């Protein structure tokens, strides 16, 4: 077997273990786990506080909980559809390692700011509308510790949509405003490390 095919097969086997027994109808994660494992290997031991904006059925949350062993995750989502029951079931086994914050991200980010919460790793994958993404990036950035990592999904999503319906214009402006955001990957997702200012 070619090396690349072996790497993919190994990653798929690991993912099968991670998601075994869970109930998902969507997969926005499977195509990303190889790069996540490579990109974030060096922060596995130092990541204990994770924030996720946009959790849906909990697939990415399950991945972070398994990958960052021992980490606690705060999951922010509207939690408004029937898939919420699947989120609850999929995450039930993690007990106190999970906090669910239901409501708009702008509201939840405000709550976390009031609490003076600090995170080591933040995944921004909520609304994909430009202005919402901007709010999420700005709000999340304030909650990220120096040296922490923020990952933004779907940078290249729907390139023909009007700007207001895309992620990229918000991420580009966020990066322009924040030179302390050191880009560690820019592809379909954008990962940045927060340099101390
Ligand atoms: C693509 S899904 C997240 C997928 C998940 N990260 C995964 O990979 O398994 C996007 C989620 O963002 C949530 N969402 C959309 N707009 C939101 C908002 N304004 N505030 C909070 N969550 C929002 C939706 O309810 C949906 O569950």
Layout of SSEs?
Elements: H1 3-18, H2 33-39, E1 49-53, H3 59-67, E2 72-77, H4 83-91, E3 98-102, H5 105-114, E4 119-124, H6 130-143, E5 144-152, H7 168-177, E6 181-186, E7 190-194
Parallel strand pairs: 1-2, 1-4, 2-3, 4-5
Antiparallel strand pairs: 5-7, 6-7
Describe the structure.
The chain is an alpha/beta fold. It has a single domain (3-194), classed as 3-Layer(aba) Sandwich (Rossmann fold), CATH 3.40.50.150. It contains 7 helices and 7 strands; from the N terminus they run ααβαβαβαβαβαββ. The chain has helices spanning 3-18, 33-39, 59-67, 83-91, 105-114, 130-143, 168-177, and strands spanning 49-53, 72-77, 98-102, 119-124, 144-152, 181-186, 190-194. A 7-stranded mixed β-sheet has the order 3-2-1-4-5-7-6, with helices on both faces. The radius of gyration is 16 Å and the shape is globular. 32% of the residues are buried. The mean pLDDT is 97. S-adenosylmethionine is lined by residues 28-29, 54-56, 59-60, 76-78, 104-105, 125-127, 132. The site of S-adenosylmethionine (SAM) has 16 residues, from α3 and β2.
Q: How would you sum up the global shape?
A: globular
Distance between the termini: 47 Å
The tally of helices reads 7
Which class do the helix and strand fractions yield? alpha/beta
Share of β-strand residues = 15-25%
The total domain count is 1
Please name the CATH topology.
Answer: Rossmann fold
The share of residues in helices is 25-40%
The level 1 CATH classification is: Alpha Beta
- Strand element count: 7
Low-confidence stretches: none
Bound molecules: S-adenosylmethionine
Strand order of the largest sheet: 3-2-1-4-5-7-6
Name given to the CATH homologous superfamily: Vaccinia Virus protein VP39
Helix-strand string: HHEHEHEHEHEHEE
What's the architecture in CATH terms? 3-Layer(aba) Sandwich
Mean pLDDT: 97
Radius of gyration: 16 Å
């Amino acid at each position: 077997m070619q090396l690349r095919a072996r790497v993919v097969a190994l990653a798929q086997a690991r993912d099968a273990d991670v998601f075994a027994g869970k109930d998902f109808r969507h997969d926005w994660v499977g195509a990303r786990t190889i790069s996540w494992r490579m990109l974030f290997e060096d922060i596995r031991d130092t990541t204990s506080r994770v924030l996720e904006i946009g959790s849906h059925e909990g697939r990415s949350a399950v991945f972070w909980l398994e990958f960052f062993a021992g980490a606690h995750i705060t999951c922010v989502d509207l939690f408004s559809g029937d898939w919420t029951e699947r989120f609850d079931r999929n995450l039930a086994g993690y007990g106190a390692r999970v906090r669910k914050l239901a409501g708009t991200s702008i509201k939840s980010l405000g709550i976390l700011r009031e609490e003076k919460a600090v995170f080591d790793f933040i995944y921004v994958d909520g609304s994909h509308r430009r202005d919402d993404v901007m709010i999420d990036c700005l709000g999340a950035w304030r909650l990220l510790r120096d040296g922490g990592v923020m990952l933004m999904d779907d940078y290249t999503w729907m390139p023909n949509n009007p700007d207001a319906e895309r992620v990229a214009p918000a991420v580009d402006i966020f990066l322009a405003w924040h030179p302390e955001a050191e880009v560690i990957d820019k592809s379909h997702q954008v990962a940045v490390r927060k340099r101390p200012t």
